[in-house]
From TrEMBL, chains A, B:
Domain called Nicotinate phosphoribosyltransferase N-terminal: residue spans: 17-141
InterPro entries, A to Z: Aldolase_TIM (IPR013785), NAPRTase_N (IPR040727), Nic_PRibTrfase-Fam (IPR007229), Nic_PRibTrfase_pncB (IPR006405), Nicotinate_pribotase-like_C (IPR036068)
Protein name, per record: Nicotinate phosphoribosyltransferase
Organism in which the protein naturally occurs: Streptomyces lycii
Keywords, ordered alphabetically: Glycosyltransferase, Ligase, Phosphoprotein, Pyridine nucleotide biosynthesis, Transferase
Length: 442, 442
């Protein structure tokens, strides 16, 4: 069955309409001109990182593989295209049989990237490769933007766990993908059930202010919560007066109280006060969770505070100021004729207003210095220099239409944490700066 | 059948897991405490508009209604919750029977809003109303953010049509909702096929740079496109040299050429040059479409240029700097006991660090001055003053679980354009400023 997993409780048919109209009109014109089956190479890259960022994080690759596998035009899709006159009958007939049979290579998911890094390379006929443009970019641009923000937050948090809580501040399905990307970037858990359902990410949460307000008193609310969720629960202590609530929380749950959560106010000040009060009450193992409009800077500013975990919402799911990764999908080489044996010719748009592309099918490697620390992202079109042949970044993801590159999300997360930790130390600075590795073209 | 329409080629089951874990643990604790069926009123509002914005745009209400209708826990969802130990068996049993049976009122979709405007009010038992929090906020926060950006762009564009082209820069399903929200805000069309499929929004598009690069020459590419799509097509003229491409475009298609598209460079300069060249070549009716990283300011800067249509991508789907509308869903009143006859009591969290809420079930009206121009957003909790009773903003959307408020998207779009045009003229300024109407609480 032709199904796509979109983070829903069930799979649903086809990703083929997550596509711009012009991909299909180009297909129609190329079919008619006899150029649709020219062998073509498209590459995904970004011309620059978001201002001040030191590195990017490849995320969404696993979702791209699902989208490619399920990119089929069924009866409903074809009827729509016919009814709207999007394309002609020969094109509809071609689409009815379509499945991607080309090759895809790319940076493994979780890897870091820099301006010009060819993070995905799609090869096949022009027809089959051009069709994937929109959905591939949608996924990579969204997921990589969230993962990059998550990674910076995770650097700022150090060993303290980060909880993703942003579902309410982004589109309901973008939220599921955002939880996944946040996990890749170093988060530990999510508030959102669909992300737990789909990706097995641990879900967390206990109560909101509304639960306290529902009851006749804070005492009633805390008692109700502890009765139901146990003493290990997290009580929200900033509905009325924090000091009184902390006192009441320990009185209600005892020193076994799992945690208290603070969701407003001066978190630095409050964390110190609440820690002192908890310790005084004997609740020395009760943890403090903070969750109020955090970003990487706010997290870093709490490094010396007695905080045990951070919950992050809005700023995470919106990429902390950069909600899209600005990746593009460009034709970089194609054959001169539909003859399958015709050689590939590099192509590129002429630069105008900074929209530079470099033609040619590219390899990429990360050059190490004598200490084994990466010193440059090397991108080339010709022979790979012998000294770089062990440092190549791209791996096969799809071969002849067959999906090869699926892997568990924990593998992806571990890869990211490892790749990040190998970077020069300045990559970990939150302050604005240039990409931590220069990109060299050879 | 229990299905939800998410902008996909087909409907899929249930929106119930687009929900934060804590909604369910609160439900469990309240069920056990006997407080779950206390009559409760939740309201959706925002504490402030994005910095500098003059008004907000309510968008997503129609999608909220679909989400509410399809918020059901089926076997897959319940199995997941049981397996993960999210809630206990009595709660699972309660969820298995759940459907929302309460009432929802709200600002009609497309209406403008201001800080504190109660744009949605959900009434029912605490249990049924709290469950909807996450998905309601996801939808309204995303869609309203995009619609607000679209509305400003549409003000800047005046009578010239705006085309939404941002699918590749946002999550693949957020893209479908973004097209819808952009249409509400005043856009005319979308590049994305799924948005055409789901919402009947006109889809547009012809070709990308890759199509030109695929062919042996620009002439071959233009010929292929015109042969297939007709002389009325839009040719992309900035792959190599714009002047040469415009010459070639008119030579290929004749003066009947529909349009040329410029996607890079200095658009103001280029538009003037290209217009002069087209006129000189006799292609006086060939239109000029521009599409390079536009936002409301870039659109406004082209007001005096000979541009016929704008295509907007990244900045639209990311809310032009404000990708979420920062709406919250707050318990504002609840009964003191589960007795259905118990009166409602206003409740509110104590203000701490600016998180102000005002308790009580609210009405809202837009007070007009003597000229009939709105002068204030009036929000109140008591009796509606007689002079405002004709200006009330909220309408019934759901009654006893039955969806009342469905309407065609064109009705919503027309409502927005009318509501916007009634605002004081300063609402149309792009420059930063305060909300164009003050919010008064009575």
């Amino acid at each position: 069955m032709n199904t796509a997993d979109l983070g829903l409780p069930v799979a649903v048919p086809s990703t083929a309409l997550f596509t711009d109209h012009y991909e299909l009109t180009m297909l129609q014109a190329a079919l008619r001109a006899g150029t649709a089956d020219r062998r073509s190479v498209f590459e995904v890259f970004t011309r620059r990182l978001p201002e001040g960022r030191r590195y990017g994080v490849v995320a969404g690759t696993g979702r791209v593989l699902d989208a490619v596998e399920n990119f089929r035009f069924g009866a409903d899709e074809l009827d729509f295209l016919r009814r709207q006159g999007v394309v002609d009958e020969p094109t509809l007939a071609w689409l009815a049989d379509f499945r991607f049979r080309g090759d895809i290579h790319g940076y493994p998911e979780g890897e870091v990237y820099f301006p010009g890094s060819p993070i995905l390379r799609v090869e096949g006929s022009f027809a089959e490769a051009v069709l994937l443009e929109t959905v591939v970019l949608s996924i990579l641009n969204h997921d990589s933007a969230v993962a990059a923000a998550a990674s910076r937050m995770s650097v700022a948090a150090g060993d303290r766990p980060l909880m993703e809580m942003g579902a309410r501040r982004t589109h309901e399905l973008a939220a599921v993908a955002a939880s996944r990307a946040a996990y890749v970037g170093g988060f530990s858990s999510t508030s959102e059930l669909a992300a737990g359902f789909r990706y097995g990410i641990p879900t967390i949460g206990t109560s909101a202010h509304s639960f306290t307000l529902l009851h006749d008193s804070e005492r009633d609310a805390f008692t109700a919560q502890v009765d139901s969720l146990g003493r290990g629960t997290t009580l929200l202590v900033d509905t009325y007066d924090v000091t009184e609530a902390v006192r009441l929380a320990v009185e209600t749950a005892g020193p076994e109280l799992g945690a208290v959560r603070i969701d407003s106010g001066d978190l630095l000040l409050m964390a110190h006060r609440v820690r002192a009060q908890l310790d005084e009450l004997g609740a020395t193992r009760t943890r403090i969770v903070v969750t109020s409009d955090l970003d990487e800077y706010a997290i870093a500013s709490l490094a010396a505070a007695p905080v045990d975990a951070y919950g992050v919402g809005t700023r995470l799911v919106t990429g902390s100021g950069h909600p899209t990764a600005s990746m593009v999908y460009k034709l970089v080489a194609r054959a001169e004729s539909p003859d399958p044996a015709a050689p590939l010719v590099p192509v590129a748009k002429k630069s105008l207003g900074g929209k530079t592309s470099i033609g040619g099918r590219k390899w990429a490697a990360r050059r190490l210095d004598e200490q084994g620390v990466p010193e440059a992202e090397v991108v080339g079109t010709g022979e790979v220099p012998a000294e770089l042949s062990g440092e190549l970044l791209q791996v096969p993801l799809v071969r002849g239409g067959e999906i090869l590159g699926r892997e568990p999300l924990d593998t992806v997360r571990d890869r990211h944490l490892a790749a990040r930790s190998r970077l020069p130390l300045s990559a970990m600075q939150l302050s604005r700066g240039e990409a931590v590795l220069p990109t060299e073209y050879v």
